[in-house]
């Protein structure tokens, strides 16, 4: 049977079962208008895949009328949605059921210089592992949202090469096609920090922020913007690349080619590097935690400079877009509160001309699974924040520029 037709039939059968609960094959056939033969063929596939199960027989309701008929029902886990967040050093996966509850999640770590095929292999292992641990078989998987480390836009040109000379777009294509090949469901892919910002806007601030500026300090620095109740992607999909806003024109050379980008001061490697260069060797969060606990003045000085640089960028953007809320994320900010304190002070200074515009500034509330959760949110496409989220990030099998372009 033609794949597209089969899929349409499958969708209708699943919908009928979702609406009506357990039904016999005969009842399903009459509701979706399929012949018994075609229906049997499709329900067998769905049973095999685990999307539906044999719930019971109708023996009790039609006693004495021959062999009881089997009743089919959606698997309790019907309708699964997977969020994936590829970071520079780890991949995180979260799977939600149709009720939007997270039923499986986990992370797997890799080296920052590992290849994309290796990262994808790690992710597939992780998906298998969390599936086994949680008893999730993915038979009802309906979509996958993938967060990709930035700068990344699903609409970037084929030839895009980003900081560090990494051919970003082809890597995105490889990730996309690997997931489509493996799972055969609809896949969307976008910047992981944008997804994290979306998750913070939906779940982190309760009511759903209308104007929110999100930034995350990590191996790199990315951001997400919600303006007027919409997640902003920008004309070519790069909105929110706060890591490459200049803060020090004569500063350190950034991997993007410019000098003095925010990332050269406030990314985690930059922070560790500055402390080390000033005589306090720091190469891990544990080192940093210890130095902060001791109140090391050199480290405190570095962290204040980080907070100041961060505050200048956030304050500048705040002058431009007047967000109601600014959210600062990243493990380093949780460890070193002084970054947050200084950023708040600098943002207030930047907003001196319009003090009434002072936003509510807070630490991110979600944990490391924020990117994966945001990817699931984008998949549901139910938040009003996604009202104008471009369809181009949900590629159609035949027309998408993202489709299987790696050979
Ligand atoms: Zn840069």
> What is the CATH top level name of the largest domain?
Alpha Beta
CATH-assigned homologous superfamily of the largest domain = ATPase, nucleotide binding domain
Order of helices and strands: HEHHEEEEEHEHEHEEEHHHHEHHEH
Fraction in beta strands: 15-25%
Sequence of strands across the biggest β-sheet = 6-5-4-7-8
**Cα radius of gyration in angstroms:** 25 Å
Number of helices: 13
| Average pLDDT level | 85
- SS-derived structural category: alpha/beta
| Overall geometry | elongated
CATH topology of the largest domain: Nucleotidyltransferase, domain 5
Annotated CATH architecture of the largest domain: 2-Layer Sandwich
How do the strands and helices of this protein lay out in sequence?
Elements: H1 3-20, E1 23-24, H2 25-32, H3 36-49, E2 52-57, E3 70-74, E4 80-86, E5 90-96, E6 102-109, H4 116-134, E7 141-148, H5 168-183, E8 186-191, H6 192-204, E9 212-217, E10 221-227, E11 230-231, H7 263-266, H8 268-277, H9 285-294, H10 297-321, E12 325-329, H11 331-335, H12 337-350, E13 360-363, H13 370-380
Parallel strand pairs: 4-7, 7-8, 9-12, 12-13
Antiparallel strand pairs: 1-3, 2-3, 4-5, 5-6, 9-10, 10-11
Residues 244, 254, 256, 258, 261, 263 line the site of zinc ion.
What does this structure look like?
This protein folds into 3 domains: 3-74, Arc Repressor Mutant, subunit A, CATH 1.10.10; 80-195 and 383-393, 2-Layer Sandwich (Nucleotidyltransferase, domain 5), CATH 3.30.420; 206-363, Nucleotidyltransferase, domain 5 (2-Layer Sandwich), CATH 3.30.420.40. The strands form 3 sheets. The protein has a 5-stranded mixed sheet, with helices on both faces. The relative contact order is 0.12. It contains 13 helices and 13 strands. With 407 residues, the protein is of the alpha/beta class. Helix 5 links the parallel strand 7 (141-148) and strand 8. It has helices at residues 3-20, 25-32, 36-49, 116-134, 168-183, 192-204, 263-266, 268-277, 285-294, 297-321, 331-335, 337-350, 370-380; strands spanning 23-24, 52-57, 70-74, 80-86, 90-96, 102-109, 141-148, 186-191, 212-217, 221-227, 230-231, 325-329, 360-363. Residues 392-407 have low confidence and may be disordered. Helix 1 packs across helix 3 (36-49), helix 2 (25-32) packs across helix 3 (36-49) and helix 6 packs across helix 13. It binds zinc ion.
């Amino acid at each position: 049977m033609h794949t597209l037709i089969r899929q349409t039939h499958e969708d209708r059968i699943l919908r009928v079962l979702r609406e009506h609960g357990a039904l016999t094959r005969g009842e399903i056939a009459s509701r979706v208008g399929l012949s018994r033969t075609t229906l049997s063929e499709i329900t067998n596939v769905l049973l095999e895949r685990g999307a539906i199960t044999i719930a019971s027989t109708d023996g009790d309701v039609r006693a004495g009328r021959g062999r009881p008929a089997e009743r089919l029902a959606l698997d309790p886990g019907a309708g699964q949605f997977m969020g994936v967040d590829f970071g520079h050093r780890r991949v995180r996966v979260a799977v939600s059921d149709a009720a939007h509850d997270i039923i499986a999640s986990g992370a797997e770590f890799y080296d920052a210089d590992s290849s994309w095929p290796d990262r994808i292999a790690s992710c597939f292992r992780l998906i298998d592992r969390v599936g086994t641990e949680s008893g999730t078989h993915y038979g009802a998987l309906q979509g996958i949202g993938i967060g990709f480390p930035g700068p990344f836009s699903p609409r970037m040109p084929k030839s895009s090469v980003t900081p560090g000379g990494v051919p970003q777009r082809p890597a995105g294509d490889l990730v996309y096609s690997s997931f489509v090949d493996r799972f055969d469901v609809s896949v969307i892919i976008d910047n992981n920090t944008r997804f994290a910002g979306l998750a913070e806007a939906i779940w982190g601030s309760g009511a759903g922020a209308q104007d929110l500026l999100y930034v995350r300090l990590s191996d790199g620095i990315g951001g997400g913007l919600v303006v007027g109740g919409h997640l902003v992607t920008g004309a070519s999909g790069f909105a929110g690349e706060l890591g490459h806003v200049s803060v020090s024109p004569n500063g350190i050379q950034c991997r993007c080619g410019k000098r003095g980008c925010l990332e050269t001061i406030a990314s985690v490697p930059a922070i560790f590097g500055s402390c080390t260069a000033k005589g306090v060797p720091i190469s891990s969060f544990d080192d940093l935690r210890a130095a902060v606990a001791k109140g090391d003045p050199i480290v405190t000085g570095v962290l204040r400079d980080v907070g100041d640089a961060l505050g200048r960028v956030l304050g500048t953007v705040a002058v431009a877009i007047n967000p109601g809320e600014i959210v600062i994320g990243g493990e380093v900010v949780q460890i070193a509160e002084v970054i947050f304190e200084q950023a708040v002070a600098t943002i207030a200074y930047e907003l001196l001309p319009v003090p009434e515009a002072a936003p509510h500034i807070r630490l991110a509330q979600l944990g490391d699974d924020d990117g994966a959760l945001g990817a699931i949110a984008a998949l549901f496409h139910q938040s009003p924040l996604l009202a104008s989220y471009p369809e181009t990030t949900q590629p159609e099998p035949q027309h998408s520029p993202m489709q299987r372009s790696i050979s």
